[in-house]
Amino acid sequence: MKKKLLLLLLPFMLNAESLKSLLEFADRANNLIVAKDLQTQSKTSELDSSKSDLYPTVDIGAYYKRDDKPNVILPGTTYSGYAKIGYDVYVGGRKESTIEQKKGALKSSQFDKKATKNSIELAIVQDFYNIKSKEASLSAREEASKAVKAQLTRMEEFLKASLATQDDVDRLQSAYDSNVYVIESLKFGILSLKKSLELKVGKHIESLDASIFMKSESMAQELDNIRALRATKASVMDRAKIIESYYYPQIRVEDTYSLYGYMDKPNLSGFSIKQVSNQNQLLMTLNMRLYDFGTLSESKRSALLQADALGEEIKYKTKEQHLQQELALQRIVTSKLNIKSARSALKSAKSALITITKKYNSGIVDNVVYLDALTARTESQATYKTALNNLELSYALYYYYNADNLKEYLHE
């Protein structure tokens, strides 16, 4: 019998997904994580672009010009090709500040990606153990339903033999129907959670394997979402420096070499006027903002205020992390006590059900006492399994708020 049962369960066992495998797959397939990765790549390209801005620029061009009424000393048609090299000698430190600003934006994007990944992993862990708890409740209910069904069948036979009343049958039928409803409700709850889990992981899930966390101490680190805020604040401060740089002198040097060609060359008294065939032009410009009705100063003030706002958000998030770390430790203590209590209750409920079932079969107690004992055993069995899963969730929250990698603490 055991071999047949194992053969029936084998396909489900082979397709069962461990929590660690789900987390690893989600890192690659979750759309939100992939989106954050693409955003990080975009920020990397922006930084590379800013670094390239430190070097000279080279441009080439050409033009064609035709005058319907040309000057007597200028040709009617001129065409030219040119090459120009330009370099910003001094721009008030704007380019350097832009590079630092882009570095900060890239760091913020990288930390934001990690924070998103960790948040999704925690949500996967919560769905995983919530499903496990509901499956435990479903298993207990199905077991109880079988017991009630057996007693209902037995009592119907007694009714036919006039050894029981219709009230006895009706009570058992009501209990059985109630169990059927609860079982279907639990199945729907499991289905809903499983669909939510599939969305987060990024693939279809048949069944879930057992998974537990290591029970060890962890060194607290700053959460990645706080690090992202710090990097964003630094980026905003550099943006304020960029704005300020426009008040400093802007010095640029350009060198342009041009080649010219002409048609309709003019002549004066039978003599052609010589035209320039090539030209090298050196241009140096100096520009400085003297007054702009406060446009730049207000933009800088806006950036500094935004940085101050981020600073306050960092303080709040830091306090929140410390609070959650304390709660996570207390949650572990409470979960362990709950397991101890639930284990004792389950042991008592099992023993009581065995005794009351014997008395019920012997007609010493009525079906009300039996159903109460069966309900107590069912609920205590589900409560114990849920308590075990809550302990795993408590450790997951503890590691999460200590900024640890959840996958590294899984036993698999």
Structural class: alpha+beta
Q: Largest sheet, if any?
A: 4 strands, antiparallel
- Helix percent reads 55-70%
| Average pLDDT number | 90
Secondary structure: number of strands: 10
Which strand order spans the largest sheet, edge to edge or round the barrel? 2-3-6-9
End-to-end distance: 29 Å
The parts where pLDDT drops under 50 for at least 5 residues are: 1-13
Strand content: 5-15%
Structural write-up:
- The chain is α+β, with helices and mostly antiparallel strands and 412 residues long.
- The protein is built from eight helices and ten strands.
- It has helices at 2-15, 19-29, 31-52, 94-160, 166-201, 224-245, 295-361, 367-401, and strands at residues 16-17, 57-66, 77-90, 207-208, 212-213, 250-263, 267-268, 271-272, 278-287, 410-411.
- The protein has a four-stranded antiparallel sheet, with no helix packed on it. A two-stranded parallel sheet has the order 1-4.
- β7 (267-268) and β8 (271-272) form a beta hairpin.
- α2 (19-29) packs across α4 (94-160), α4 runs antiparallel to α5 (166-201) and α4 packs antiparallel against α8 (367-401).
- The relative contact order is 0.15.
- Residues 1-13 have low confidence and may be disordered.
